[in-house]
UniProtKB/TrEMBL annotation:
Keywords associated with the record: FAD, Flavoprotein, Monooxygenase, NADP, Oxidoreductase
Pfam families in the cross-refs: FMO-like
Job of this protein: Catalyzes a Baeyer-Villiger oxidation reaction, i.e. the insertion of an oxygen atom into a carbon-carbon bond adjacent to a carbonyl, which converts ketones to esters or lactones using NADPH and/or NADH as an electron donor. Thus, can convert bicyclo[3.2.0]hept-2-en-6-one into the oxidative lactone products 2-oxabicyclo[3.3.0]oct-6-en-3-one and 3-oxabicyclo[3.3.0]oct-6-en-2-one. Is also able to catalyze the sulfoxidation of methyl phenyl sulfide (thioanisole).
Cited InterPro entries: FAD-bind_Monooxygenase_sf, FAD/NAD-bd_sf, Flavin_mOase-like
Residue ranges that the Swiss-Prot or TrEMBL entry lists as coiled coil: none
Protein name: Baeyer-Villiger monooxygenase
Length: 509
């Protein structure tokens, strides 16, 4: 590479994480950065998930940036369109657009140990960067399981995160595969228009009522006139969730009471005992994400819906066959089967100091210091990295904590001065992860008796944070430089060494 573009920071992704990083960098006085986005607009999750019924499970006043409060949220739990609008607004308000490069999928990022920078190959060209911030999202690459006979299906197939709005579902026989957060929003949204809906359920979710309502004009007026009321509302929503954490992390048995509420929610809508039996989970509530819906169970009780309490195992033309042998003829299949979480594709594309990819280095399980930096990957930081997910609160809180860490990381590089990189010590990464895994042992995610996407193929929980958001914020307030090795360019480091040696010889003489 001779003539090329060089930036101080390259941020990958323009969802909450990438846009938040951009705002934070500007606030730190850093303007020499780009945001590389593979799609044509900002928004990430909220751009890609446009399926019918898509909405947030966390109240909007908490699921938004603390530095960009929105007094005008129309509902307690906003729908996808409003959140997407909010993110477009953040990009405009904070003048981020000149930094964003759309249609710029990062194909590879390689660390150059001589030059101490990252070389990035993107769909729109190459560039180098001192620091890479990967904000590609934990739930951004849809996963469709390998199903025997998949190719024989003659109908329409799509994933919930890639909804085909041109395909008319009216009157069709539709199969919904999966019963996660997206599926339980899709089912009631499409049930009325489809001819027949067959839900393939491997594991039933726990579903609690959703306290969703319009935010009144009076409330919005108050939030506009007195901004501290927006903050107070956010604070209350946050505090309630902080208090719940202990039950998830230390006393899962206490969650038994919550199971009773969820059962009552089901019993209100489902009168058929056989259907209730199919829909009753056999694991502790909270082990998988607790889902919120007032419409899911009523939709399942409708006569045009069938629940197959078994996973899809084979496709023979138009016939879908479940693991228990149940068959259903369908015209379309909607996969609500989640995302590549513990095997995120960006990890394949990032090659560190030893020429090893992040995916290779994480073969035994994802691990990063304070959820952000990985051994062997200098000046590379992940937003929503390993063990930063939440079971009960807003991911924006975790993203903002990580942005504090990023800001201090940038300050530390400036203080060290010159061409320099920080790479976390293996002992520091191991120490952090051992502490996290130790705390994980008692949590409902590990002891609740379920198999969830929080666990990797080795059964290790590398996705969820086993504590409060306050604890995580504390842990990421500052970069402890002692946890890092300071790396200098080889020539500079060698001449510094020889200068030191010479000085020592002179003083000895
Ligand atoms: C349907 C759904 C509902 C959710 N509901 C909630 C909720 O209620 N509460 C909650 O806290 N969280 C929720 N989440 C989690 C949500 O993903 C996070 O809250 C948050 O939006 C993640 O933001 P992000 O910026 O890290 O990732 P994303 O929003 O996923 O953004 C990542 C961006 O990176 C881009 N990208 C990926 N790879 C590349 C590449 N190689 N090159 C260039 N660009 C790339 C993507 O195109 C995308 O724009 C939900 C997720 C989904 C899918």
């Amino acid at each position: 590479m001779t003539e090329h573009e060089h930036v101080r920071v390259a941020v990958i992704g323009s969802g909450f994480g990438g846009l938040g990083a951009a705002v934070r960098l500007r606030r730190e006085g850093i303007t020499d950065f780009v945001v590389l986005e593979r799609a044509g607009t900002v928004g990430g999750t909220w751009r890609d998930n446009s399926y019918p019924g898509c909405a947030c499970d966390v109240p909007s006043h908490l699921y938004s940036f603390s530095f960009a409060p929105n007094p005008d949220w129309p509902r307690t739990f906003s729908g996808q369109e409003r959140i997407q609008e909010y993110l477009e607004g953040v990009a405009d308000t904070f003048r981020l657009r000149p930094h964003i490069r759309f249609d710029s999928e990062v194909k590879q990022a390689r660390w150059d140990s001589e030059k101490l920078w990252w070389e990035l190959d993107t769909a729109s060209g190459t560039l180098t960067a001192d620091v890479v911030v990967s904000a590609t999202g934990p739930l951004s690459d849809p996963k469709i399981p390998d199903i025997k006979g998949f190719d024989t299906f003659p109908g329409k197939v799509f994933h919930s995160a890639r909804w085909d709005h041109d395909y008319d579902l009216r009157g069709k026989r539709v199969a919904m595969i999966g019963t996660g957060a997206s599926a339980i929003q899709i089912v009631p949204a499409v049930q009325k228009e489809v001819g027949r809906l067959t839900l393939f359920q491997r594991t039933p979710p726990w579903v609690m009522p959703r306290a969703d309502r319009n935010i009144t004009r009076a409330e919005r007026w108050l939030h506009r006139q007195l901004p501290f009321t927006t903050q107070a509302r956010r604070g209350l929503l946050w505090g309630i969730r902080e208090l719940q954490v202990q039950a998830f992390t230390k006393r899962p048995n206490e969650l038994g009471m919550v199971e009773q509420l969820a059962k009552r929610n089901m019993h209100r809508a489902i009168k058929d005992p056989a259907l209730r039996a199919k829909l009753t989970p056999d694991y502790r509530i909270g082990c998988k994400r607790i889902l919120l819906s007032n419409a899911y169970y009523p939709a399942l009780a409708r006569p045009n819906v069938d629940v197959v309490a078994s996973g899809l195992s084979e496709i023979r033309g138009n016939t879908l066959v479940a693991a228990d042998g149940t068959e259903a003829e369908v015209d379309a299949i909607v996969f609500g089967t989640g995302f590549h979480v513990t095997d995120m594709p960006i990890a394949e594309r990032v090659v560190g100091a030893d020429g090893v990819s992040l995916a290779e280095s994480w073969k035994g399980g994802m691990a990063a210091l304070r959820g952000a930096t990985a051994a062997g990957f200098p000046n590379f930081m992940t937003i929503i990295g390993p063990n930063t997910g939440l079971g009960n609160s807003s991911m924006i809180l975790m993203i903002e904590a990580q942005l504090n860490y990023l800001a201090d990381y940038m300050r530390q590089l400036t203080v060290l001065g010159g061409r320099v990189a920080l790479t976390p010590r293996e002992t520091a990464v191991a120490g952090w992860n051992n502490r996290v895994q130790d705390r994980m042992k008692r949590t409902v995610w590990n002891t609740g008796g379920c198999d969830s996407w929080y666990l990797d193929e080795n059964g290790r929980n590398t996705t969820v944070w086993p504590g409060t958001t306050t604890e995580f914020r504390q842990a990421t307030r500052r970069v402890d430089v002692g946890e890092y090795e300071v790396v200098r360019p080889p020539v500079e480091a060698a001449s510094k060494k020889s200068r030191t040696k010479k000085k020592a010889e002179v003083s000895a003489a």
